[in-house]
Amino acid sequence: MNLTTDSQTIADLGLFSSSSGSSIYELYNRTHTRGGEAVLKELFLNPLSDKEQINRRSSIIKAFAEAKLQFPFEGALFDMTEKYLMEGADISNGSPQRPLLGEKEILQGVTAVIELIQGVRGFTNQPEIMAMNPFQNEREKMKALVEDPVFLPALQQSLKSRPSYSAIAAYDTLFREQQSGKLIALLKHIYYLDVYLSIAQLATERNFVFPKALEKGSSLLKLVDVYHPELEKPVANSIQMDGANNVIFLTGANMAGKSTFLRSVSTAIYLAHIGFPVAASSMEFSVLDGIFTTINLPDNLGIGASHFYNEVLRVKKVATALSQGKTLFVVFDELFRGTNVKDAEEGTIAVTGAFSGKNSSLFIISSHIVEAGEILKRYPSIGFKYLPTKMNGHIPEYTYQLEQGITDDRHGMIIIRNESILEILKNGRKKRE
C-alpha cells in the first residue's frame, strides 16, 4: 500500500527540485550505481502506507547504519554487467534477446558477472551480515540466487586466470540465454542494497533519527527537535498531535519562519513513510493514507484560474478524500490569501473548524489573520502556535522558535518605514553621493 500524495505536495517539499536548485532527493542520493539511483527515485515517488513495511525498511537501514558498512562493489562492475546483460536487449516481455557484442565485450561481461556472483556470496557470508536480523529475508534471497547449482562453475572460477574460449562461450550462453532472469533479479537486490547502505551512511553522518511507525488510525504525531534537512544552521522545533489535538493554527509575521517550519514537518512525515531517517531527535507517527500540502500554490493561468479558485479546488480535493474516510496529514500555508481579508477570515474559520472534527487526520493551518484564531478557540481540538518577532529597536529579529498562543506581532509598517518606501514615493530616490 502506498501513501497518496500529488505533484503540488512534491513541489512544495522540494523533493526533486527547489528554488535553491537543490532537492531532498539529491541530499539523500549517495548511491554508487545507476540502478540504485533509479530505485531511490522509485522509493521517493512511492511512500508506503503500511506500518509493517515502513518499520521493516527502516530497521534494515538502521541496522546498516549501526554496522557502518560500505557498499562492497565497485560502480564500474555494474556498468560492464548491465551493458553485457541488457544493452540492446528487449526485456519488455521478460525474455531478453541477446544483444550483439564483440569478443572483448563478451569477455569483460562474463568476467564482471563472475566477479559479481562471487562478491555477493562473500558479502552474504560475512558474520555481521549473517547476524543482521532485519536483512535476513533479502540476504537469503541473494544467497539463494548466487548459490543456485547452475552458478557453481562461476563460484569456482578463478578470477586470476582468463577462462578458456570454450568456457567463455559456455558462460555466455549460461548468463545471457539460460539464466539472465536470475542475474537481473540479483542486480535488483544489489540496487536496493546500494540504497540501504547509502541512506545508512547519510543517517550516520547527519545524525538523522529513524522514526517509529504506529498503527494507522491512532492519529498520533510526536516530533522532537525537527528541522529542515537542507539547512546549514537550523532551529529545531517540537510538536505533538493526536485525535484530541489534531489541528495546529500557526501565526507569525512574514519571514518569521512559518513556511520553513511547515516544510520541515511535512518533509519528515513524507520521508518517514518511505522508511527513511529524518532530521529530528525522535519521531513517532501514525501511518497515514495521504499527505497534501499547499505551501506555494501558483495561479493556473492556462485555464484562467485565479489563486483563490485554486485554493478552493485544493480544499475541495482534501475534503473529498476526508469524506472517503482517508486519514491525512494536511498543510495550508496562509489559507485563502488569494481573496479579500473578510472572505479569507470567514473561510479560514469555517474550513479550519470543519477540519477539527476530522480527528483521525492531522492539520496545520497557518494564517496572518489573528482574529480568526481568536474565534477558533471555541474548538477544543485546535491548538495555537506562533513564531515570534522580537524588535531590536526598529529592527525585527526572528527566533524561529515555536511558542504557545497567537501572535500579536504587527510590525509590517515598521518594516515598510525601515525601507524608506513612503519617503521614496514622496520625495523620489535620493541621488547617489
UniProtKB/TrEMBL annotation:
Gene Ontology MF term list: ATP binding; ATP-dependent DNA damage sensor activity; mismatched DNA binding
SMART domains on file: MUTSac
Keyword set includes Calcium: no
Entry GO CC: cytosol
InterPro entries: DNA_mismatch_repair_MutS_C, DNA_mismatch_repair_MutS_core, DNA_mismatch_repair_MutS_sf, MutS, P-loop_NTPase
Protein name (Swiss-Prot/TrEMBL): DNA mismatch repair protein
Swiss-Prot/TrEMBL keywords: ATP-binding, DNA-binding, Nucleotide-binding
Gene3D superfamilies recorded: 1.10.1420.10, P-loop containing nucleotide triphosphate hydrolases (3.40.50.300)
Natural source organism: Arachidicoccus ginsenosidivorans
UniProt record, GO biological process: mismatch repair
Domain DNA mismatch repair proteins mutS family: 245-433
